[in-house]
Amino acid sequence: MVLAASGTSNLLVVDLLIILASAGVVAVAMRRFKLPTVPAYLIAGFSLGPGGLGLINDTEEVRAIGDLAIALLMFGIGMHLDWRSLKRRWKIMVGAGAASVITCTLVLAVALLAVGVAPPVALALGMALSLSSTAVVARLLYALREHTRVKGQLALGVLIVQDIAVFAMLLALPSLALWNGTLATIDTASGASLASVAQQIGLGTLALAGLIFVGRFILPRMLDEASRMGSDEVMIVIATAFAIGAAALGAASGIGPELGAFLAGILLGRTIFKHHISGHVGTLRDLFIAVFFTTFGMYLESSVLLDQAHIIIGATIALILLKTIAISFGCWVIGATPRLALGCGFLLAQAGEFSLIIVLAASSTMLGLIDPIMLQRTTAVVALSIALMPLLARASSLAMYYLHVDFSPPWIRSFSLQTQTTTPETDTPPTIDIVAGYGVVGRAASMALRSHDSDIRVIDMNPVTVRTGREEGQRFIYGDMGSADVLEQAGIADARLLILTAPDLDAMERACLNAKRMNPNVRIIARAAFESQCDRLHSVGADEVIVEEITLAVALEHAVMNVLGSHTADEIIPPTVRDTA
After folding, report:
1. 409-428 tens-digit pLDDT
2. Looking at the 3D structure of the chain, how many domains does it have?
């Protein structure tokens, strides 16, 4: 009734329906060819927009939802940053990531200068295109179970540094626009001065300080209270409100909604609730991401793409070659072997989602660094480079397999990855056993595993239990055992055994399905309250099911026999039940 009363709202709903339906159809079609979804969304947007079929001509309201998607994407990236991995090898990861980003930016900027692009614009585009696709590469590494190998670890480390660099790149854009003479925020005719700029900086600093205070001291306490209530709904509401509030604060203070949301994700990622929340927020984020990239594709026009197809294809080939060389060099200078460096170079040679975000920010009315034609060219190059990801992954594997040249730069004497890169294909994943639920049953299972020198990971929904376990130096993860994100963080891809002890049938079924999908070889032992639940758990992948009522029946059998003495087991417990136990 409300939508019917508002023509604008009704039109927005229709536009969203068209966008999501088209994005889904195109994504499914491209998936048949094993192509990533990001180019599919861009193609869907191009088809729907003014440059295609023209089904959606006014994209301003839909673009507002895309802006929200950017904030949620930045929030998710900040929340997923693996600070523990970065801290463990921070010199290697930061060195390789920083060298790769700087080298890529300079090489691409010089190439753009050579074709006549203005220096500030060349630097902005160089920064944007130096970024790789975190979502596509990370999913590929996890799917191939290469995230624990040396190449995967180095690639993920470079991606982490790239994601952090987005923060600095967005901050650098106004300076580039000022250099380019297109910055619209400083207008001496309207009375703006250095004092107003200083005031804006002070306001941004206060906003950052306030956000950090809330994220460090107030947010964890609110989430802790919500977890004690046993309410996932309240936790998700608090986390989402914090993300959107941080984005709004960033926009109001001048630091930008993207940076505000990114910092909010980092702050929430420092809590024990990050993986549990990300599993719920991730679905909403993915929905908005589809909208964002689809609306971004609406910038493309068929006339421009056809007229400049040779430029777009040539630029894509040049981008891949230059990034492969630059990233390989960036990894090699910090001590990686040539084949490891080249393997990472091919794997990260495409542009990424954040490339579009940087380019979109640079093309805004406020900055004016990139004109509409350049925006369309860059969007097409990003989409085409991501679509070529399967070929890049294949080239990466071939480089790792066939290249046997082994020499280090003269300034490197020893490197912790160096000795591990000679036979990356033979890396043996660590033996991981996961216990979901740390009650009486879970503790008993953990004690049994410790006698086998197992690397035990524990999943539990009690924040006190998780904190206590972490303080004792154990690998405890807060979250729902049925969540794919939580299982992934626990290391399900390399796990030998998954023991489900929490008495939640729905969560156990989801855990079995997700675990077998992510690692078909994992053995699953599940706990069931009743015999009638056995078939359900076996049907979703459980290898062994321990039934409480049967175990209790057997225990009672022995107790009764001890008391009565003269009765046989068949007189007390039917043979079929005893055999099942």
Report:
1. 766 654 444 434 334 444 45
2. 2
